[in-house]
């Protein structure tokens, strides 16, 4: 095989040791030699700098990308513990990997998106761009709009927002062994590769349509000229105190897609609030939403989540009936893990996808603060979704 990928994982609570252990496990699977890509995801119980020092103790100066996460995902499933790190190492004769970084996404997301696009101009033809923006500070809608307007035609974009342990304090982005905040880590994948990207959610619309009538930055202040938080509370039997309420965590907003873009995906892009200003009754959405947008409340449905992951993974398998991917990336919402499924996250959402694509395929990913994936060729910022990116080598003649 022209491409070899290995995945390691550690739950050691010693930061340096955990990074080194995960990298060593991955190295054992691909054997000694050149490393073309290091991809790392880790929860935030670790000292992030020491963690990456442990990784680079094994991988040296090999190109690195990744970010902090609410949880990590491997072939063994999901781990949302405070101390969990996974490392994928890749060596390929045909695929190419180029790591990128842009800072200041929270200050000016559009400028950051253009900077990432501009940095691609001298990188040659890429097939897939993975982006890992700060999941708390970035207006991902503005970032992606600028990236979409300036990137090379035909380049697919996917990824997920860096996360942490649902404290909504600080996330971290990884680039070539260094740790950053308020930035975007990115990876351009090119060469002899076919990238297949699918996305699905598991939410059902409820109630009637509404209109966003007042916004400020990433905050929705009013829906139908009433405080946005009041609308959420109307759909709860109890009187919730905050977003952590058992009823509220199942609620999101569906932003209606134009019919010509929705295709066979769904009628709505799903958006979830990550902050509440109770004094103003305002809800914070990292991706931002525009005044005048038509929306409908949605509720997460466990059965639809399960069915959606099977359909998504099956679509990939059906498009490549006699071939397994060289590796798979999974970017999955932090609200689709133990928050909904408890200890059955792997059983309900990950095992079915791996069985459809290949349980023995190198597989790595993380639980995100927002997901990024195209629908019918246009890149969108999502919540409450899973994004699968399968990389295939050219079929042998």
List keywords for this structure.
alpha+beta; 397 residues; globular; 6-stranded mixed sheet; 2 domains; 9 helices
Written description of the protein model:
The chain is α+β, with helices and mostly antiparallel strands and 397 residues long. The protein contains 9 helices and 26 strands. The longest helix is centred in the last third of the chain and has 18 residues, at 302-319. The model has no long low-confidence stretch (mean pLDDT 94).
Radius of gyration from the CA trace? Answer: 20 Å
SSE class: alpha+beta
Integer count of domains: 2
Which residues sit in consecutive blocks of at least 5 with pLDDT less than 50? none
Mean pLDDT: 94
- State which percent range the strand residues make up: 35-45%
Distance from first to last alpha carbon:
14 Å
- DSSP strand tally: 26
User: Percent helix among the residues?
Assistant: 10-25%
For the sheet with most strands, the description reads: 8 strands, antiparallel
| Secondary structure tally, helices | 9
- The coarse overall form would be globular
Please describe the topology of this protein.
Blueprint: E1 3-10, H1 15-30, E2 37-42, H2 48-59, E3 64-68, E4 71-74, E5 77-79, E6 85-92, E7 95-103, H3 109-119, E8 126-133, H4 140-150, E9 156-160, E10 173-175, E11 178-180, E12 183-191, E13 194-201, E14 203-216, E15 219-223, E16 226-227, H5 228-234, E17 251-256, H6 259-262, E18 268-271, E19 275-277, E20 282-284, E21 294-300, H7 302-319, E22 327-333, H8 338-341, H9 345-357, E23 363-368, E24 371-375, E25 378-382, E26 385-392
Parallel strand pairs: 2-3, 8-9, 22-23
Antiparallel strand pairs: 1-6, 2-6, 3-10, 4-5, 4-23, 7-12, 8-12, 9-24, 10-11, 13-26, 14-15, 14-21, 15-16, 15-20, 17-18, 17-21, 19-20, 22-26, 24-25
Helix pairs in contact: 1-2, 3-4, 7-9
